[in-house]
Amino acid sequence: MDYASLASEYKETFNAEPQRVFFSPGRINLIGEYTDFNGGHVFPAAISLGTYGAFSKRDDRTVRMFSANLPKAGTIEFSLDDLSYNDADNWTKYFKGMLFELAKQGKTIDQGFDLYVHGNLPDGSGLSSSASVEMLMAQILLDAYGQDISRVDLVKAGQLVENDYLGLNTGIMDQFAVFMGKKDQAILLDTNTLKYQYAPVKMDGYVVVIMNTKKRRELTDSKYNERRAQCEEALRRLQTKLDIQTLGDLNGDQFDENSYLINDDILIKRARHAVVENQRTLRAFDALQNNDLTTFGNLVNASHVSLHYDFAVTGTELDTLVETAWQQPGVLGARMTGAGFGGCAIAIVKESNVDAFEKAVGDTYNEKIGHPAEFYIAHLADGSHELTK
Ligand code: ADP
Ligand code: MG
């Protein structure tokens, strides 16, 4: 997809040329899973797959939107005069939610718009299409409406859409990665302080392969909330003696010496994942800085093991992809990415081995699970931006 194809799709829907076209990526997380709400570090990157939006301002206060991905929903309309949540908004709730959250901060717009949306992120696969569309709206507000607000504040508004407007318990990583991403770089983000650092991902001869289980993430929300509550309870028990704000404040040794305070086998496992994953993420950042891909790959593998045994969020589909990937030649590391229970995994694979890799992992997966997996190469890409003609 490019400017011209989006412009012509827009024209078929709205009968005019769009004024501008925008792109907002999806994201992968290289390592640092389920650490975000534990005040820990994450290491995500924006990817070349994402959501395109062809846009024109209107003279009135109406907003009209159409998505090529959800054509049955038709053209959805609302007015800037009422940005409150409404079930009838369907998928446009993410856009309306951004307008709502920013209006609460006094950042209003006067003119409505027509927007044609078309994404190429696989549906419901945990590559964060919701953050992608929220930040598409954010980029439009910056570029087309000249809103005076920092990129990081727009990231925070995106998280508020999920937490406040939609009532979902999610961290800030997705919006941050989508909006702050840079080509060929990953972002080490401390979700506690929002301090961040870019790390060049120079993987000479290796690429990141996304492996999609094609299993819709079911139960993810209830399990997610359960894991979150378990981590909070473990933290509360540690705080009876330790002066810490989050599990991410501890290193592995400090955790070891104090885990007796938690006194529950499940809670100890959950908390141990949060603590050690945070440490692994910092080590993975150092490994990439030192061009030590072998160590990086080993840490990626260890992350999956911890998500499987201690955090228990993988499931047969993700385990099959990752464990089969580990057995293939030319693979440095593989792990699930995102919330788990389905969705996607990533593998770092030697470029010349990619075809054989996809064939071998794909065959084993299909045999064992009974439906095919999908594979995509993820190029680490720039965050949300406007496309030039
Ligand atoms: P994800 O892990 O991809 O973020 P979510 O359930 O959080 O999954 O968000 C997916 C939702 O985002 C979709 O159900 C839809 O409402 C909205 N969405 C994402 N991409 C598009 C698109 N291209 N067009 C319309 N809606 C989209
Ligand atoms: Mg989402």
TrEMBL record:
UniProt-annotated site: Transition state stabilizer, residues: R27
Top-tier EC class: transferase
Catalytic site positions: D174 (proton acceptor)
Reactions this protein catalyses: alpha-D-galactose + ATP = alpha-D-galactose 1-phosphate + ADP + H(+)
Annotated GHMP kinase C-terminal domain residues: 285-366
Cellular localization per UniProt: Cytoplasm
GO cellular component, one term: cytosol
Full protein name: Galactokinase
Gene: galK
